[in-house]
Design goal:
Layout lengths: L1 E10 L7 E10 L6 H11 L4 E7 L10 H10 L7 E5 L16 H25 L5 E8 L1 H12 L2 H5 L1 E7 L10 H10 L2 H13 L3 H15 L9 H11 L2 H17 L5 H6 L4 E5 L9 H14 L8 H4 E3 L14 H17 L2
Parallel strand pairs: 3-4, 3-5, 5-6, 6-7, 7-8
Antiparallel strand pairs: 1-2, 2-4
Length: about 350
């Protein structure tokens, strides 16, 4: 199936001073030369369900990191399961954003809500007022994106939340990230302003085509020693081109620092209120959510304490990965496996059941 990939730049607030990169990936039906495609396209227009799949990235939050995952999802589904998909990048995390201001994870959440209200919800409202109110959104947050998804639902108005069919939190970091093993290791480094600025200066000095090619080859070579994380050359190229940029590194490190310092306990109240819609998928050895038993206990307690707990199965709402997927699951050979888990275990088994 052919796909249309658009790289968009949407304003993050009313001033329109700063814009963030958004990937929009949709299906393309070649109706010019194929009768079967013409019939399929006509049939698809009559389908009732129109699901928009929206990815909220982790940190770093370049949407290009999730392009291959989204393409796999579209390949594995029909247009009645996923009509189109977006990845809402974090502001200043893409080399082409040209945003020199660093934003906290809380501010990044505000940007996502603005994007939804200005760019996505108007389309759904048109369908609503045209009495075609089967258009829905599935949010998919990876890592800190899981926290952002939950906070989006906390802040949305009741009618806006009606558009959210489900919110899937993949390898979520939703509580006490600074106390995790990875947080304790990286926190002092990214929390140091001089280290952040020095990293940006060094990368600025090394910005040239020759260095970039060498770095891509180096990243590709180093990852070959890890079966789960090994990247092909395309993945390595995406990481280097999108991440190894002066202000992207500085902005991502600053956002990470705010996560370490400002993220406290679990937002159990929002989970309890929207318990039917929020799903968690944890990695048992994820260095950002250890001890895993404490995280699972806190989330499951919020599910059980909900007044709607009788309507849900806690084991469906809170799951633990059994495929040995890494935290950085959207890159490397695990992309197809992750996509199949999302499609089979969630989209078909739960969201559209």
């Amino acid at each position: 199936m052919n796909k249309i990939v658009e790289e968009l730049y949407w304003p993050i607030d009313e001033s329109e001073k700063n814009k963030t990169c958004v990937l929009h990936i949709s299906r393309h039906f070649n109706t010019a030369n194929n009768t079967n495609n013409i019939n399929y396209a006509k049939k698809s227009k009559k389908r009732k369900t129109q699901t928009i799949f929206i990815v909220i990235p982790g940190n770093p939050g370049a949407p290009h990191f999730y392009q291959r995952l989204i393409c796999e999802l579209l390949d594995m589904t029909t247009d009645s399961e996923i009509l189109e998909a977006y990845c809402l990048g974090h502001t200043g995390h893409t080399a082409t954003d040209n945003v020199f201001t660093s934003f906290s994870f809380i501010e990044q959440t505000e940007h996502k809500i603005f994007l939804l209200r200005k760019q996505i919800f108007p389309k759904l409202l048109d369908n609503y007022y045209n009495k075609n109110n089967n258009a829905t959104i599935v949010l998919c947050g990876h890592s800190i994106g899981g926290w952002i998804c939950i906070d989006i639902m906390r802040q949305l108005h009741e009618m806006e939340n009606e558009f959210i069919k489900a919110s899937l939190c993949l390898f979520p970091t939703v509580m006490h990230i600074g106390a995790s093993p990875n947080g304790q290791k990286l926190g002092p480094l990214i929390g140091n302003k001089w280290i952040r600025e020095s990293s940006a200066i060094v990368l600025n000095c090394l910005r040239n085509t020759c260095f970039q090619k060498c770095l891509i080859n180096f990243v590709h070579y180093m990852q070959q020693n890890d079966d789960k994380m090994s990247m092909d050359y395309e993945d390595a190229s995406i990481v280097v081109k999108q991440l190894f940029h002066p202000y992207v590194v500085r902005n991502a490190m600053y956002m990470g620092d705010t996560e370490m310092r400002l993220m406290k306990g679990l937002d159990a109240k929002t989970i309890e209120k929207h318990v039917k819609k929020i799903f968690f998928y944890y990695g048992p050895k994820d260095g950002w959510t250890q001890p895993i038993s404490k995280h699972l206990q806190s989330v499951r307690k919020a599910v059980v304490n909900s007044k709607y707990s009788d309507d849900v199965d806690v084991n469906q709402m809170v799951r633990v990965d059994t495929h040995e997927l890494p935290h950085a699951c959207a890159l490397g050979p695990t992309v197809k496996l992750l996509a199949s888990v999302i499609v089979d275990d969630y989209i078909r088994d739960l969201f559209l059941a």
